[in-house]
Amino acid sequence: MTTTTPRSQALSARARRRARRDAGSVSVEIAILFPVLLALIVAIVQYGLWFHARSLALAAAQEGVTAARTYGAEPAAGPARAREFLTAHGAGTLTDVTVAPTTPGAGQVGVQVTGRSLSIVPGVPGPTVTQSASGPRERFTTAGAP
Q1: pTM of the full predicted structure?
Q2: Does a structural domain hold residue 17?
């Protein structure tokens, strides 16, 4: 047999009042935190898409430089090879693409790839991606010559 004292009855009454005041507080917390969590997830996915597009643009630029720096290559060989690479491997990951040859210095060739990454937010264009690569043009040399 248990007996309740007036003190324990007062404590349990206080606990019941506190529980009634806190009723629904979890719903409010979730209503505040859910949009923040959703925005964080969207930002992480958008960053992943941008990083992938950036890597793809850099790989295309490097591929273009590899084609442009070969001995006797035409000036348009680099950008053409970069476009072929993007067509084969890009598949819509990089949009609004422009590929341009650059001349970083004497005896150097370069390719710059610019485009936009995909956006997961409708109506908002993806971030701009610009990557370039350069290298020396291949040439024949003789022994003792620079």
Answers
A1: 0.76
A2: no
Task: Note the pLDDT of residue 25.
Answer: 73
The string of pLDDT tens digits covering residues 4-35 is 676 666 667 676 666 566 666 778 888 889 99
Amino acid at 1: M
Q: Can you say how many angstroms the Cα of residue 47 is from the centroid of all Cα atoms in its chain?
A: 3
| C-alpha to C-alpha distance for 51 and 49, rounded to whole angstroms | 5
Residues with Cβ < 8 Å from 75, sequence gap 6 or more? Answer: 68, 101
**What is the reported pLDDT for 13?**
67
- Beta strand residue intervals within the chain, DSSP E: 94-102, 108-117, 128-136
Domain that holds residue 112: 27-136
The token pair that represents 62 in the structure block: 């490097």
